Amino acid sequence: MDVVIMPDKARMGQAAAAAGGGLIRQAISEKGAANVILATGASQFEMLEALIAEPDIAWDRVTGFHLDEYVGLPITHAASFRAYLWQRFVSRLPLPLREFNYLNAEHNPQAEARRVGKILRQHPIDVAFVGIGENGHLAFNDPPADFETDEPYIVVELDEPCRWQQLGEGWFPTLDDVPKHAISMSVRQIMKSRSIVCTVPDQRKAAAVRNAVEGPVAPKVPASILQRHERATIYLDPAAASQLKGKK
To answer: Is residue 172 part of a domain?
Structure first.
């Protein structure tokens, strides 16, 4: 795992997108297609904006997968990750994606996890774009995360710190409005990705970043598992990197 600290959020997003874009182009060059995972949330704003602008990507050869989604939330809700991905990324690409596999967890999340998981098993991931939560979560795998399941997607219970984060980012009016369950890509499935591009801005993530980068690998800090991935890079702004001992 490598750590890259950029001078501000905009350049952090640009650096992550440039790296990810290069990996997508490489996959298309090598095998004629690429498979990617996309995260959501406030941490991905700058990266997604820059990724859309990356030149010379044959997006019509790219298949995308949704990282996680709330259970019971309609696509019309302001916090819907399906809506987020369509509005902030998929609909804005210069070429339509070959396919994007959204998670619809409104009615039968277990069946939906199996359905999209079956598709994912047939598409080895070239690049996973992810973030780290304030509680150290990876996707919606809150602590203590399941490091053992081989299921591509699982239905998880969201812990209170995770739900407070969603409230604090302005996605919901009250804590009671934040769903208590979600479909999440599993930790093992994320780790199967050929490369991982992890983008983490803001002071509120600093302790989680420190624990994930410099602490032991343990389910209580789910993102710490990235230490075991040979091609994972974490892109930080100075605020998110502020508690790292080795920060520049």
So the answer is: yes
pTM as predicted: 0.95
Taking the C-alpha atoms of residue 33 and residue 55, their distance in angstroms, rounded to an integer, is 16
Give the SS3 label for residue 31: helix
Tens digit of pLDDT for each residue in 196-216? 999 999 999 999 999 999 999
Work out how many domains the chain is built from and give that number: 1
* Separation CA 115–CA 65 (nearest Å): 12
The answer to the question of residue 174 being in a domain is yes
In a domain, 243, yes or no: no
pLDDT tens-digit readout, 95-113? 999 999 999 999 999 999 9
List the beta bridge partners of residue 219: none
Q: Is 139 left (phi over 0), alpha (psi -120 to 50) or beta?
A: left
Work out whether the CA dihedral 207, 208, 209, 210 comes out positive or negative.
Answer: positive
Residue 126, pLDDT above cutoff 70: yes
Domain enclosing residue 43, as ranges: 2-215
CATH number at residue 126: 3.40.50.1360
Nearest residue to 220 (alpha-carbon basis) of 99, 133, 128, 93: 133
